[in-house]
Amino acid sequence: MNRRLLTALRTALLPALLGTLLVAPSTAAGAQTVRADVDFRATVALSNCSGSVVRLAGAAPEDPALVLSNGHCLQAGFPEPGEVIVDRPSQRQFRLLTADGRGELGTLRASRLLYATMTETDVALYRLRRSYAELERAYGMRPLVLASARTDEGSPISVVSGYWKRIYSCTVDGFVHELREAGWTWRDSIRYTSRCDTIGGTSGSPIVDRDSGEVVGVNNTGNEDGRRCTLNNPCEVDEQGNVTVRPGTNYGQQTYRFYGCLIAGSRLDLTRPDCHLPS
After folding, report:
1. CA-to-CA distance for 75 and 61, rounded, in angstroms?
2. Tens digits of per-residue pLDDT, 204-258?
3. Domain segments of the chain as ranges
4. Which fold has domain 147-256?
5. Does residue 151 sit in helix, strand or coil?
6. Could you tell me how far CA 86 lies from the centroid of its own chain?
7. Which CATH architecture has domain 43-146+257-268?
8. How far is Cα 149 from Cα 271, in angstroms, rounded to an integer?
9. What is the C-alpha separation between 101 and 44, in angstroms, rounded?
10. What values do phi and psi take at 154, rounded to 5?
């Protein structure tokens, strides 16, 4: 998870970084050229992380809009291992970016923290006060669509950070049976190739498939120091229990499992037989 690095950036490196990172993706150091259909549409900046306005493929225009980010980006701090937060009031605010990432369209406000956990996955889903139709009328903005199936190895992806206004472009390098970091364990995590060298503040960024334009996951962590299974240094564990450490490698969590759990009106039903989110 990258919040510790983000704090360090704020306190020690931010003045030096402003000249290189808070610029358009085409000029930021190390940024990759991406296809024209991947931009900052529906991307938001949180106070400490990134996020995006998302919907299921079958969501109705009058449904309240949803914002996707990480469970470790909660203002109250990291959820404990095994903890699942469901349907709590929230007044969290999100800065909605223009498609080119150079400005802001406005501020979105949550009404509920619909779901958050760091168990098996690392996600937070907020329900906004406005519907998808209201957002389109107010900002001309359409949400990103969540993919209904897991992504594939080799798929071209972009990690779109609203916090840094930067796009990272790479491919899916593979999948991790278990990704362990400190006391948390995540399953079937997405591992990126090296071009997606995400940093603090990119947590919660949507992982967009560059062929379909759909969101296949949410960016959440990377091994910063080459350590084994510690905070900010996740390790990979295979089915036989073998541990692998990949220094400098970054990861995300898949989001297709929301399809079995979200119902009409942007509500959550974790008791449904086809819902496989931790409850």
Report:
1. 29
2. 999 999 999 999 999 999 999 999 999 999 999 999 999 999 999 999 999 999 9
3. 43-146+257-268, 147-256
4. Thrombin, subunit H (2.40.10)
5. coil
6. 18
7. Beta Barrel (2.40)
8. 20
9. 10
10. 90, -5
